[in-house]
Amino acid sequence: MKNRKSIVRNQVATDVSNLSRGFTERTIDPSYMDRPDTREAYGAYYGEVSHAKGESLGREILRRASPRLFRKDRLRMLDLGAGTGEFSQGVATALLSEFSGPLDLHLVDRSAGALSHAINAAKDPRLFISVTRATLPEERPFLPGSFDIVTMANCLAENDHRDESFAGLLEEVSNTLRPGGILLLVEPADKRSSRTLLSLGDLLLSRHFPLTLLAPCPGGRTASCPALAHPDDWCHEDRPADFSETLLKMADSLGHIKDALKMTYLLFGQDGAPFPSALRLVSPLHKEKGFFSGDFCDGNHWWRIRLLNRNRSDLTRSFTRLHRGETIEAPLGGLLRSGSPRDRRGAMDWSKELPVIRLAHPDGQPFDREEGL
User: C-alpha distances in angstroms, 148 versus 169, 179, 208, 212, 298?
Assistant: First the structure.
């Protein structure tokens, strides 16, 4: 006879499985966060992953944001569609590792139960949480207000075909940002969610959005996203991650693979440092008979580039070690000027005389000199 603990664990796994199916099929009940059992299942599985995503992107904010953002005595942060708050608290964890002052985090969500859970879960003594219950994007009782950082995660995935309404909300919110302000948008790493977020980004940029796109696109992209040029393309992150044994066991029981942080994101800022001109690997690196190949983005175009085995040398060996999301130095001439953006009719070959220099990891952390070669 199964003991009570085993029965409870199995029920949580069942609830997680149902949640996963609902998210994938876009059939999730909007009130799922209001039910304690479903909320518990969400936290047991998605909470740790969300917190890890927040920490990773929080560290990217530390690298990309204007230095004046962190010269303030106190930071104010707004999280839209916060749920139980794990994502934004992950961002806060990263920020507070470098910022010496307190951080005021205001959470907005349609679920009172989720917001109550978030308040009770806060641990850092320098993190002060307040909440507003509101249904986005129409209800905006938290405005007017002024914030340093605004985050929004997974809202588009749970609000199909609301791009225009969310664009209006984000435009209004961007006007509340204080000097050096940051806007971070994140969605799941499936094709539909990714393309929706990238389309929203294009919509914002086309409206003369007052913020600069800092990451992940190289060169501070201002034109249409190259990933949207073909209906089969999309762009997402696949960053290495270490999860708890409890999470890994549950993932295994559900038939899921949890070995990385998978997401699509856009990081905007009033100022700050966009990633410099470079080539970013936006696909897996493929190893095929006679060559390695991958799709690269320079912020304006996608390029399919391959390294033939006969062109492998000390100068080009780094190509074979590339991972999705890493950036390499863009050639000053030759390769890209003589080719054309990816048109599905072939690939450009990297010359064995042209060095492959790795610039940064997927999270923007620069490679040291020896790693980059």
Answer: 16, 7, 20, 15, 29
Q: Is the pLDDT confidence value at 262 over 90?
A: yes
CATH number at residue 237: 3.40.50.150
Confidence of residue 339 (pLDDT cuts 50, 70, 90): low
For residue 41, tell me if it sits in a domain. no
Question: Rounded to an integer, what distance in angstroms lies between the CA atom of residue 76 and that of residue 284?
Answer: 37
- How many whole angstroms separate alpha carbon 187 and alpha carbon 189? 7
Please tell me what DSSP assigns to residue 25. Answer: H
Helix or strand (DSSP H, E) at 238: strand 237-240
Question: Are residues 264 and 287 part of one domain?
Answer: no
Judgement on whether residues 207 and 296 belong to the same structural domain of the protein: no
63 located within any domain? yes
Cβ-defined contacts of 287-295 (< 8 Å, 24+): 287/320, 292/319, 292/320, 293/347, 294/322, 295/342
What is the pairing mode between strands 212-215 and 260-269?
A: antiparallel
Taking alpha carbons only, the member of 269, 315, 2, 262 closest to residue 150 is 269
Residues 78-103 have pLDDT tens digits of 999 999 999 999 999 999 999 999 99
Which has the closest alpha carbon to 91: 109, 64, 111?
64
